[in-house]
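Let's see one such:

===
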Amino acid sequence: MKKLGLLSVIAVVASFATSATAGEIPTIDASKYGFKEFRMGILGGENTQDRQKQYECFLPYMTKMFQVPAKIFVAKDYAGTMEGLLGKTLDYAWLGAAGYAGVYLRDKEAVRPVMTRRSVGGALGYHSVLVARADSGIENLDDLKGKVVGYADPNSTSGFLIPSIEWKKQGYDPDTFFGKTVFSGGHENNVLAVMNGDVVAGVTWVSGVGEWTEGYSHGNLRKMVDKGILNMDDLKQVWMSKVIPNGPIVVRKDMPKEMSDVMFDAFQYVHKNDPNCMEGVVGGEIVEWVPIDHSHYETIVAARKAKIEAKKKNN
């Protein structure tokens, strides 16, 4: 984490000169509440430099809204960011629903959800999709019997929790139906594993609205298309989940509400006044930010709890 912290400081200094042009963004002096800096945890699973680049335009806004330096810490996986929140070495993170559930089940007093995105089309959710190479001959789950299937991360909602639960309900027990399941180390890596032939099919997340040729309106496929590392003609979708609640932006539970209120208003400001920057952070188009609380994720918390208890029982 120390090395990543150094990268974060460089990103802040390089971009801070642009913050003067950010306009009248809502602000609050976080130093009055004991904050010397604002530490932002970013989920792993993507190239660290890519995540840094996506947030370069956003860090000056965060610095200006809180009047203290904003720093990014990119963990190598989801668990790293979760541990940072549990250990109070991070003040903020944008988690998936399962990641939030994992933190909540370990310490109910660690974080609180502040907001989530409303996707194009009006939904407060997204989808897990299973993709295969277009030339693979795979058309549906039946075709994957005995084959190798890739998950993104054990703490990912769309990249593990939801597909593993829904498949079993549909009569495809991942532990016995597939020949093997593996974790690829994140969503981008999982799609690349499909394209490289390391797995026959892999799960990732998408908005489920918009054009397939563009990777939908936002999500991992859209980010990969925008980065120029994926041509959607090379992939086919063979399964889609039910709607999954969009993951929350969370803050330390002991953060004063005055600070999180300003942060919510400031996120809306950036979305309206610098949509290109926000699209880079989000990974595509969104409609707005919406306030939420723990109740929005109770079903995911229950699902993750059941998964944990089942694993303990089997062991």
The domain at 125-244 is CATH 3.40.190.10 (D-Maltodextrin-Binding Protein; domain 2). The chain has two domains: 2-118+247-304, 125-244.
